[in-house]
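Q: I'm writing a short explainer about Na+/H+ antiporter NhaC for a general audience and would like to include a description of its predicted shape. Could you first generate the structure from this sequence?
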Amino acid sequence: MAKLTKSKSPTILDASIPVITLVTLLTVAVSYFGDSSSYGPNQIALLIAMGVAIVIGIKNGHQWHDVEKAITNGIALSLGAVMILLAVGSLIGTWLLSGTVPTMIYYGLNILDPSWFYAAACVMCAVVSMSIGSSWTTAATIGVALIGIAQGLGLSPAITAGAVISGAYFGDKISPLSETTNLAPAIAGSELFAHIRYMFWTTMPSIATALILFIILGFTETTSNNYQSIELLSKQLSEQFNLSLFNLVPLFVLLALAIKKVPAFPAVAIGALTGGLWAVLFQQELILRLASSNTDVLTANITVVWTAFFDGVVIETGNKDLNELLSGGGMSSMLNTVWLIICALSFGAVLEYLGMLKKFVDVILKSAKSTGSLIASTVATCIGANILTADQYIAIVMPGRMYKEEYARRGLDPLVLSRTLEDSATITSPLVPWNSCAVYMSGVLLVNPLDYMFYCFFNWINPILAVVYGFIGFNIKKLTQKTSDNTAEQAV
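A: Of course. Here's the predicted structure. Afterward I'll give you a sentence or two in plain language.
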C-alpha cells in the first residue's frame, strides 16, 4: 500500500515568491520586447513562474501527479472559450470577405460625427452587448467596425477601443443573458434579477461619468477628418467590395441567435458560416481577385472562402492603413491568444491548488474590520485573481467562495457580495494585458491593452465607486431574516 504524504499549507513567503517572479519576468518581457511581449515572452514568464510555484508545492509535500491534474483541470476551464475564440476568428475572416465589416465602416463614416464618435461608440456597444449578453461578440463585430471608422475619421484607435470595451462591459454586466451576470449571483447566493437591479446603483453613475469623459475627449481632440479623406476612403471601400445593406444580414443573424439565447459557440459559428455564404453570393469579383491566377470560378470560391475561415483574408488596396483594416481574421489569428490563455490558466490553477491564493485572502481578512475594508478587500482580491489567474471566471468563483461566509457572518446581504464580484472581477479583466479578456480584446480590436486600458473609463470608475459606497455605507444592503434563512439552506 502506498504511503500517503501529508502536504502543508504554504507560508506567505511561499505564496509571494511565484508572484514576485511573475511580475519581475513580465516587467523584463515588456522592457525588452515591448508591444510584442504577448506573442511569446509573456507566455514564457507565466510558465517559469508556474514552475517556481510547483517547486515550492513539492517542497511542501504535494505530489507532481496531483499538480498535473490541477493544471489539466485549469486548462479544461478554458476549452469553451477557446472554441469561441476560434469561431470568432472565422467570423472576422468571413465577415471581411463578405463585406459585412466594410459595409458597417462605409456607412459609419458617413453617419457618425467625430465630435460625438467616442460617446456614440460606447452607447452602441452597450446596447448591443445588453441585447446579446456578450462583450466578446460585441467587440468582434460592432467593435471591429468602429475601430475602422475611427481610423477613417482620423480618431484615436486607443480611445475608440476604450469606448468599445466600456460600453461592451456595461451592457454585458446588466444583461440577464450574460454568463458572468448569472455566475456572480449563483456563487454569492443572490437572485439574478435582484442582482441586476442592485448593480444599477454602481453601473449607472459609472457609465454616465464615462460618457461625459468620452464627450469631452471627442470635442477636444484634434482630428484629421475632412470630407475629402472620407470620400477617398469610401471610394476605396466601394472599389474593393460590393457594398449594400444586404451585407449586414450576417450581423442580424448573429444578433437574432444571441437574443434567442443560442449558446455562444454555435451562434458565432453560424454567423461565420453565414458570412461565407454571403461572400459567395455578393463578393464574386473580390473572390476572383483573391484567388490564384488561372483558377476556375468553383475552385476560387471554395479556396478563398475556405481560407477565410482558417487564415482570414489579405486585401491589397494600395493604401497601407486600409490594407491593415480590411485584412485579418481566421482561426490562425487566434492561436497566440489560445497559447496565452493556456499558459495563464495553468499558472492560476497551480496557485489555487497549492493554497497560495487562499493564503493571501487569509492575510487580507485579518485587517478587514469594517464593511468598507471588507468590500475593498474583495475588490482587491478579484483584481489580484485577474492578474494572477488571468481568467475572469476564476476571479469571480474563487473570491466568491472565499468571502461568502464572511459576508454572511457580518450580516451583509448576498447581493452585496454578488455586486462586488461583478464590480471588480468582471470589469477589470480586460485591463490586465495577459488576462484572457484583454488578450481577446487586443486580438480582435488590434489595439495593445497598454494603449487602450487608460481609456476604459467605465472599467476604472466602477470598482472605485464600489469601494467608496462600502466606506460611506451607501446602498449597502443588510441581511434580512428571510435572506438569512435562504442562505443557510443553500449552505446546507
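A: For your explainer, you could say: The radius of gyration is 24 Å.
Q: Perfect, that's easy to follow.
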